[in-house]
């Protein structure tokens, strides 16, 4: 039966439900009735592209936040507290840049600040992807997280104002709520995407393993890596466990590459916001 019975059916039902919602809300809008979401807002280019940007930023962020702690704990063997301290580097970068974003926006504009932030996010995740190997120094991961955090702070601080820039004041509540919903959707999609890519990457890179190593790799993949610390605790020899850890690191790279792809799409969408904003100014 494969994937068809439940995931495929759920996808079809979801797509039909979204299409029906859009048609119904559009009819109500044209009849000047009460609507949950005025789909006419998506005729505003800055609003549409801005929400795509917000979606992709959330996808990339939560893909990273989902997979990186698993890598630090399971592949590198860090404790939960140590992992939290490493991830705090991202928060520190976001804290610092968030405070500076307003001053930077006064200089290069909100769209320029978002583009700069997304560029730093892409660079930071690229650096993280390059460091996904058990023998790489931990401080390089910390530096990459600081860079990513700085970009996240810059982009997030100005993104809301950018999305709502051309939305009529009387519809700003709907516009803000739509962006919040889009970000929540992006967070769910990011975690799901990262988990799927982690599993697929592990399966691909462990396809040539045999015997006990193959069985352990399958157990690690099924548990999202949480079986690896237990294997260490049971004294599994390094020559057996090392290929499992390497496969997990490779799966992590796959997940991070998917985050990079989302952020690149977000960057392109932010560029379209900037272009639409310049067009409005010229008009």
Automatic annotation (TrEMBL):
Record domain Major facilitator superfamily (MFS) profile: where: 1-278
GO molecular function, one term: transmembrane transporter activity
Transmembrane segments: 6-24, 36-59, 71-97, 104-126, 138-164, 254-273
InterPro entries, per database record: MFS (IPR011701), MFS_dom (IPR020846), MFS_trans_sf (IPR036259)
UniProt membrane topology term: Multi-pass membrane protein
One GO CC term on file: plasma membrane
UniProt keyword list: Membrane, Transmembrane, Transmembrane helix, Transport
Pfam families assigned to the protein according to its UniProt record, in alphabetical order: MFS_1
SUPFAM superfamilies: MFS general substrate transporter
Major subcellular site: membrane
Protein localization: Cell membrane
Protein name: Multidrug efflux MFS transporter
Taxonomic placement: Bacteria, Bacillati, Actinomycetota, Actinomycetes, Mycobacteriales
């Amino acid at each position: 039966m494969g994937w068809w019975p439940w995931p495929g059916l759920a996808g079809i039902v979801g797509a039909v439900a979204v299409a029906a919602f859009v048609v119904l809300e559009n009819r109500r809008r044209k009849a000047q009735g009460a609507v949950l979401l005025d789909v006419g807002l998506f005729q505003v280019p800055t609003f549409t592209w801005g929400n795509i940007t917000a979606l992709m930023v959330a996808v990339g962020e939560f893909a990273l936040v989902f997979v990186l702690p698993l890598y630090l704990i399971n592949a590198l063997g860090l404790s939960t507290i140590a992992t939290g301290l490493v991830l705090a580097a991202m928060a520190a970068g976001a804290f610092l840049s968030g405070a500076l974003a307003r001053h930077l926006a006064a200089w290069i504009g909100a769209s320029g600040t978002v583009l700069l932030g997304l560029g730093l996010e892409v660079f930071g995740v690229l650096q993280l992807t390059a460091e996904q190997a058990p023998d790489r120094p931990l401080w390089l991961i910390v530096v990459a997280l600081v860079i990513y955090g700085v970009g996240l702070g810059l982009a997030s601080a100005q993104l809301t104002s950018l999305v709502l820039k051309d939305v009529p004041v009387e519809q700003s509540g709907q516009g803000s709520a739509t962006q919040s919903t889009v970000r929540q959707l992006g967070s769910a999609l990011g975690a799901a995407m990262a988990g799927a890519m982690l599993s697929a990457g592990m399966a691909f890179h462990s396809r040539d393993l045999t015997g006990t190593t193959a069985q352990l790799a399958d157990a690690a993949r099924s548990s999202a890596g949480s079986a690896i610390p237990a294997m260490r605790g049971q004294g599994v020899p390094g020559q057996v466990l090392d290929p499992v850890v390497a496969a997990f690191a490779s799966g992590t790279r796959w997940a991070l590459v998917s985050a990079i792809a989302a952020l690149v799409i977000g960057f392109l969408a932010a560029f379209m916001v900037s272009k639409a904003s310049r067009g409005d100014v010229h008009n």
